[in-house]
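chain below, 138 aa
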Amino acid sequence: MTRRTTRLSKIIAGAVFGLAGAGMLGSILESGAADVYLEAARPDFQKVPIGILGFQDGSLPSHPGKEAAGVLAADLRRSQVFTVADASKLGIALTGPGGPEKQKLKQAVESGVKVLVWGTIGPRDPDYLLDRFVYDGG
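prediction:
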């Protein structure tokens, strides 16, 4: 073998190992994370009832508000500190930038939901801007 052939074979071997390593790293990163639930039993612990009223996203075609509400609900359930109330049963509609009516919020608190969350999402190049609000009735 000549010196040039040996050098070329080292370059090819390095490229093959580099691509294989990048492929393995990519498959590890793309595999996703599994949900892990840890159970803690305390007889005096009561979960906090929370209602997610949603996130207004205006006329954005991808509807990131619905996705944000779903992610928030899943994270709150996973924390095992909150019980997420069915927002459709609360009867509170988001109808403008001012948020829900105070009387409706008080009615939800009286029905047992101690915390209410809502917000708005709008475009902010190149991402989104999220404004969020929390009503603590406890």
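The first strand starts at residue 48 and ends at 56. Helices lie at 3-29, 64-79, 87-90, 102-110.
thats it, cya
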